[in-house]
Write a structure and sequence with these properties.
eight-stranded mixed β-sheet; 218 residues; 8 strands; alpha/beta; Rossmann fold; 29% strand
Length: 218
């Protein structure tokens, strides 16, 4: 169903070492004053990095599913001299990526690393990303996909889901989820194929942009 989306494989897809395990901030080209969201922020390392790049007039928000992780990241922010001095603005909130607790058109850019494959409804996640991005806003997201559909027994195994395995869908299904959500173009910045538990997987780093109202649709 790739007729719905224009996919571009960039030079970085052959040379980058970013293999769905972080490092996506570098691909965002963050400008001073921008507002950034880090989905599945964990302890907030990339959230802090984004906040530094956005500067004192910008802001970075980290979202995580677990309150315990949000508390750890928030404690680090409280102790940060850069936060105390107002050199950076960062905050951490608890929330579900399928129901993002933010208003429409709230963010200039979104990053995420190996989180969306945990969601039951990937298309809903990308609809939420589309909703909260400002027109012209972009995302850089790394995730795992499969070459072929996983067996039903694997998809029903909670342990497999927890291991970034059971929730993965095929590359085609993943791209279609992004296209249906409203993103007309997609760049594959990094790609690596590998075997996991005997199944063909790929790690992808993807960049997409929310069209502006007068943008030409594909």
């Amino acid at each position: 169903m790739h007729e719905q989306i224009q996919i571009r494989y960039t030079r970085e897809s052959q040379t980058s070492s970013n293999l769905s395990c972080g490092g996506n901030v570098a691909f965002l080209n963050i400008k001073l004053g921008e507002t950034i969201l880090d989905l599945g922020c964990g302890r907030g390392r990339e959230t802090f990095e984004a906040a530094h790049l956005a500067g004192p007039t910008g802001r970075a928000v980290g979202l995580d599913l677990t309150q315990a992780m949000v508390d750890k990241a928030s404690a680090t922010a409280t102790e940060s001299l850069d936060v105390q001095s107002g050199r950076i603005h960062v905050e951490f909130v608890q929330g579900d990526i399928e129901r993002l607790p933010f208003a429409d058109d709230s963010f200039d850019a979104i990053i995420s690393s190996c989180v969306i494959n945990h969601a039951q409804d990937k298309q809903r996640v990308y609809r939420e990303i589309f909703r909260i991005l400002r027109p012209g806003g972009r995302f850089v997201i790394s995730d795992a996909v499969t070459k072929y559909p996983l067996p039903a027994a694997v998809k029903a195994d909670p342990t497999a889901w927890a291991e970034c395995f059971g929730g993965a869908i095929t590359r085609e299904e993943y791209f279609d989820s992004i296209a249906i959500a409203g993103f007309p173009r997609l760049s594959v910045l990094a790609s690596r194929e590998y075997l996991k538990n005997g199944y063909d997987f790929a790690s992808l780093t993807l960049r997409g942009e929310k069209p502006t109202p007068n943008a030409e649709r594909c």
